[in-house]
Amino acid sequence: MTQPVLAVRDLSISFPAGRGQTTAVKSISFDLNEGEILGIVGESGSGKSLTCLAVAGLSPASAHVTGTATICGKNFDASTLPKALARKQLPSIGMIFQEPVSCLNPVRTVGDQIAEAAQSAGHPPEEARRIALQLLRDVAIAEPEKRYHYYPSQFSGGMCQRVMIATALALEPQLVIADEPTTALDVTVQAQVVSLLVSLVRQRGIAMIFISHDLDLVAEVCDRIVVMYGGDILEVDTTENIYERPRHPYTRLLLDAMPGHGEPLTRLVEMPPDWRLEAASSSPETELP
Q1: Which of the two residues, 19 and 260, has the higher pLDDT score?
Q2: DSSP assignment, residue 234?
Q3: Can you give the residue range of the structural domain that contains 108?
Q4: Which of 54, 214, 252, 257 ranks highest by number of CB atoms within 10 Å?
Q5: pTM of the predicted structure, to 2 decimals
């Protein structure tokens, strides 16, 4: 059996709160396999983004992180991931964030920013420039030779997100994390960007974590889905099983809350503690508590 690209074990994230601490992510474990697209879904505050920021070594300075992560065959204590990132010991992880305009450097051309990522992957400057131009073509930016010299302010939000995708791919990563990559975009542009992103990672055999609150979108693009609530993983299964045969009551609530899937919910009720299912032992036959 092939080793997962990412194996997270007992990851917990907490923050100072008054005289104590509040736990935002509660000892979660999951795997991401080679070439797989794994969706992480849940309402705001469920711990989706915090989990992936921790994996990438980008946790807030105030966060206390424990657990382990195996990334591309390298084992790390989760608390050391920011240091590993700073020392360039962490395998390349391509990050695609919600707000592309704020993530790009406004005083550098988009081409230079993509080329810099290619150089960090070990390519000399001239080769990095050639790679950057090709990636601009790959993400469907018209007139790439001309627009290589454009600044982010000269691009629309959708074009900036395409540049972010190109920058992430220039790192030649085995793992890409897309954190709600279409939230800030127009609905029509969202579909184009997601289709492009999925096509590019599939072509390159890159594993991807796709974070979203939109279960319909996740169902279209992901192979498996992790359902999170209140810092816990409640259910992990194939997309088909999650969508057609959800085992956890909270997953059913999420599905029912979607337009056209059930009665509208004004709010999702708080889950009792015994509603948690252990992801590691989950199977389609597992009975609900």
Answers
A1: 19
A2: E
A3: 33-48+91-268
A4: 54
A5: 0.88
